[in-house]
Amino acid sequence: MRRSHSPLSSSLLQLVGVAVCFSGIFLSSQTNHIQEAVSLLNQGDAAKAEAQARLALTSPTTKPLALAMLGTIRLQQAKYEQSVQYFNQALAFNPKLLGARTSLGDAYIFVGKPALARKCFQEVLRQDPGNAMARFDLFKLEAAQRNFRQSLEVGTPMMPQLLTSDEAISILASDYSALGQKDELASLISPWRALPSASVDSALDFGGVLLANGFSNEASQVFDAAEKQLPERPTSSVALRLANSFLAVGHLEQAEKNAQLALSIAPNCLECNQTLAAIALRQDNSEKALSYLVAAKRQAPDNPEVLFQFGQVCLQRDLLEDAMPALTKAAELRPDNDAYFYALGSANVGKGNLPKALAIFQQLLRKHPNDPGLTYAIGAVYFLQADYSDAETSLKQSLAAQPNQISAAYYLGLTYSVTGELDGAISIFRDLVKNHPQHAPSYIKLGGLLAKAQQQDEALQVLQRGVELDPDSVEGHYQLGLLLRRMGKKDDGDAQLAQSKKLGETQRAQKDVRLRLVLPD
What we know:
75% of the residues lie in helices and 0% in strands. It is mostly helical.
């Protein structure tokens, strides 16, 4: 159980210290052994503290406190089962040792018995409703058990104290978020900012909840402050959490810096390489992403998620010979993961294994009959197989389910173009460039069709825009060159055709069509 450094979190040693003064008087001279044990444990000398506690076992008056002290020592040593035994023995002798009962509740949490922990905290509060530690621990327990409303009910009587604790505020945020209380969540931002300091863990918890609820600017500020609180050499896990938090808000430089820090602390950190790959992809650097995934694949050659990520990046970089075995193995290891099979289907499209790709997509469609992405993929494969009737049916089905998508509409336009339905194709591509004005392929297809329809002036404007958006488009330069030559601008047209040839018309056109399946809208 993580405890904050707020005023709420008095230590277990303080709890025993309170118990020592039970009833306001020292019970016997043996109590000196208990006091000495507390002092020694506070100094970090558990062995000598235990020796003093055992001396106090000889007196009936101090035996309950001695057992409670031994339970505290075992709790600090992470020997939780023994801790439970000692605390239960102490309470059997003296049920009024509230500090021991609270600590017993904590021990029960560590051994995975939350119901018994709850009973401990509730019993303490029955005897002493103002017991802050028991209330705070019950508040945390209910939140951890996803009893968010009960957590708030327990915590409300001590709300002023909760709002001075970084850990408590992060828990309140989770409660409010789970219950859909966004206004109450927003009200926590001010007390958070008023905290003199906050642990990095609590900050990342709080910032994550803010981000999930749309408070991205506030979350970014929390993450920035957390970064400043990092110790000179943090744990790799904390640095990686911070990296993923910055990645979530799009602060890629900070994300990369902290992920590199995590990797430098733990060179064999698999998740560090995966996170660095994700950051590189967000930076549009698939080559760098692939280098991290190669390292991850070397570390975990049978990890299906690593194989999947590696395969996806290989697809983006047209490294199909590397993508296919990785995605095949990922799908074999996780036959229940549909995303893996979709990627494998896409790889088969890229390799030209169209019947195999179609079989994969159709199998997925049987599981998800209303998925527009799958009906689009099937329609695209039908198109590539020159089965234009089935392509039209599948693509229309995809658009009916999700009208404002690019890829299905694009392939439907291609289908109409190939089958000679010029007006239908032009209409589709007009809508695409209107609704998605940055989609270069649609401009290029529309320009070619307009030129074919003898609408040369509009075709020229459309093709020029397409080439402006995608200067590397082989087809764009080719269509523009043909049009310029037909318009009598031979030199300009020849220049465009030469550029098209330089880019490699046939090879690039095939890759563009086949790999379009891999890329999302």
